[in-house]
Amino acid sequence: MKKLGLLVVLILSLGLFLAACGGGDNKEKGNNNNSGDTAKNEDSNDFKVGMVTDLGGVDDKSFNQSAWEGLKVFGEQNGLTEGEGYTYEQSNAKEDYIPNLTRLVRNKYDLIYGIGFELKEDLTTIAEQNSDLHFAIVDDVIELPNVVSITFKEHEGSFLVGVAAALKTKTNKLGFVGGIDSPLINKFEAGFIAGAKSVNPNIEVDVQYAESFGDPAKGKLIATNMYNNGIDVIYHASGATGNGVFNQAKDLKQNDADREIWVIGVDRDQHEEGKVGDQNVTLTSMIKRVDVAVENVSTMSMKNEFPGGEKLEFGIEEDGIGFATTNQEAMTEEIINTVNEWKDKILKGEVKVPTTREELKTFEEGL
Amino acid sequence: MGQVIQMTSNNRLFGILVPIISVLLGLLVGALIMLVSGHNPIEGYTALWNGAFYDAFTIGETIRRITPLILTGLAIAFAFRTGLFNIGAEGQVIVGWLAAVWVGIAIEAPMIIHLPLAIIAGALAGGIWGFIPGILKAKLGVHEVIVTIMMNYIALFVSNEIVRSVLTEHKTTTEKIASSASLGSEWLQSITFYSRLHYGILIALFAAAVMWFVINRTTVGYELKAVGFNRHASKYAGMNVSKNIVLSMVISGVFAGLAGVMEGLGTYGTVSVISGFTNLGFDGIAVALLGANNPLGVVLAAILFGVLKEGAGEMPSAGVPTELVDIIIAIIIFFVASSYIIRWTLTRFKKEGK
C-alpha cells in the first residue's frame, strides 16, 4: 500500500512534467509565427538598442542610471521612441539576466548592452548563441567578435578625488566604502588611496566593503562607524549602497550644521544626493561617463561601424573619466587647481596610477 | 459520528478553499492597483501570462524558476511540521550551492559517480547548516529563528570569501563545473530555445514525493508530526524530542541544500560572489505557507510563484512595473496568513444559507 501510494505520486509528477513540455511544443509554433511578424515590422524601424541593468536598476542614482541617460540621449537624437527603438530591462535578481537578455534578442534588438560585470557570463552565453547580433558589456571584457567591451580607467578618476579628499580632510583620516570586493572595485580603492597618499603620505584610509551594491542600510552602518572614528571624508564606490553613506552624512549634518564631514560620489555627479538644506555634503564625485560611452558605441553601431571584438577603454584622455566641481563652496579654487595639476601629470604619463592592491604597495614604496 | 465526519471534511474543504480564495483576492487587488495607477489590468495580466508561457523558452525558464522554489518550500514546510521555523533555508541554499559546485569543479570522475556525489555534497552541506541550529535548539533551547538568521549571514559571507580566496584567485565567479557534474541537458535546451531548463525538476518532484512518504507513511514522520503538535505530550509518550528536533532541521536543511544544488549544477554551473541573499529561502516561506505545509500544496504554490515571478519580467511591456507582482504575492500571503478572516466569512455565509 505504501509503495503504491508513492508510485502514484511519482507517476503524477512525471505526468505534470511531460504536460509542461508538451505545452511548450505547441507554444513554440505560435512563437514562430509571431517572430515572423516582428521581422516584418522591423523593416520599417531602423535601429533598435536595448540594455539590461544589473541589480541596481535604472534609478540607482549611479551606474545604471548613467547608462540609461546615455541611451535616452541617443534615442532622442535619432528620433527613436522609448519602448520600441530603445529600452531597458530591469534585473531584480541574478537569475533575471538571461530572460532579460533573451527578451531583447527575441524582440530583434540590434545592439544589446549588459550593464555591469555581473552580466559577463550570461551575456557571453547569449552572444555565442546569437552571433548575428551585436552586444556590448560595460566594466568587463568578453572576447567574442560580436561583443564590444567597454571599460573605464576608474583608478585615474579615483586618484583625482583622492587628491581632493586629502586636501580637504582635517583629521587626516579617510574612508573608502566599496560594493563587492572584486577586481573592478579594487581599482577604485587603489586609485583613491594612491591619490590621497600622493598629497600626504601620513593619511590613513579605512577600507570597508559592504559586500553589496544594493544595501543602503549596510552603507549607513559603515558610514556611522567611520564618522564616529574621526574619518571626515568618505569615498564610496558601491552603487545604491552608497545612498546609505549619503544618508548618514546628511543626518549628522542636520544635527550639527558646523560639523565638517564629506562624501565623495561615484559614477555620476552625486551633488543632488548630498543636499541638506542650504548645505551639501557632496565634496565631489568621480564621474564615469557611462552615458558618453553608451552613446558613442550606439552611434557607431547604427552607422555600421560597430567595433566588434574590440576593447574600448575610456579614461581622462578620452573624456570618459572626470571629477565634479558642482559644490563650489567645498571644492575651492585651490583644491581644483591642485587636482588639475595631478590630472596633467597623469595625462603626461608622469604618474602611473595603480589598479590593484599589489601595484598600490609598490606605488606607496615609491613615494 | 456524522458530525465529526462533516467537521473534518469541512476542514479539508477549508484547507483547499482558503489558499484558492487568497490567490484570487490577491490577483483582484493587483488588478485594482493597476486600475488605480492608470494601467489596464487585462493587458497587465496578459503580459504576465506571456512572460511565463509565451513560448518554449519562457516555459523552460518558468520551470527552471519553479524547481528551487519547490525545494525551499519543502524545506520550510518540513520544519513547520515539527513546529520549527527554519528561516535559515536561505543560508542552507547558499552552502548547498557552494558545496555542489566545489565538488563539480575539484573532482574528475565519470558522470555516474560525479553527479550524484556533487548532489550529495550540496545536500549534506545544507543538512549540516540545519544541524547546527537544530542541536542548539534541542540541547540548549536556543531559539531556532535567531540561530538560523545568523547562519544565513555566515553562509553568505563565508561562501563569498571561499569563492574569492579558495576557488579563484580574487575573481567574482568560479570556472564552470565539469560537464560530468552538470544537471543541464542539451536535449532540454534544444526543445526550449536555449533556456536553462535542467533535470533538477525531476529531483524536486521526487523530493516532494519523499517528503509526503516520510511524513505520512513512516514512524519517523509520525513522531516528527507529534513533536510538532505537542512537544510535552510527545515526551510523555516516550518519544525522544531532542532527536526529532535535530532530525527535522537536518532534513529541512537537506531540502534547502538541494535547492542550492539546482542553481549550482543546473542553472548556472558556477558559484559567484553574491551581493545579497538569493531570496530563494525567503520565498520558500511564502510557498510553504500557501501550500499549507503539504508536499502537493508546496509544489502547486511553487508553480504559482514561479509563474508570477517569471511572468513579471514581461509586465513592463504593458507599462506595469514588475514590483506589482511582489505586491500581489504579498497580498496573497497576507490573505493566507489571515485565513481566519476567510474562514470566518465562509462560515457566516454558510450559516445564513441555512
TrEMBL record, chain A:
Q: Which family does it belong to?
A: Belongs to the BMP lipoprotein family.
Classification via Pfam families: Bmp
Q: Origin organism of this chain?
A: Ornithinibacillus bavariensis
Q: Which residues form the ABC transporter substrate-binding protein PnrA-like domain?
A: 48-355
- Name of the protein in question: BMP family ABC transporter substrate-binding protein
List the Gene3D superfamilies hit by this protein, alphabetically: 3.40.50.2300
Keyword annotations for this protein, in alphabetical order, are: Cell membrane, Lipoprotein, Membrane, Signal
Q: Which InterPro entries match?
A: BMP_lipoprotein, Peripla_BP_I, PnrA-like
Membrane topology according to the record: Lipid-anchor
Naming one, the record's GO cellular component terms include:
plasma membrane
Which interval of the chain is the signal sequence? 1-19
Where it sits in the cell: the answer is: Cell membrane
Q: Does the keyword Phosphoprotein apply?
A: no
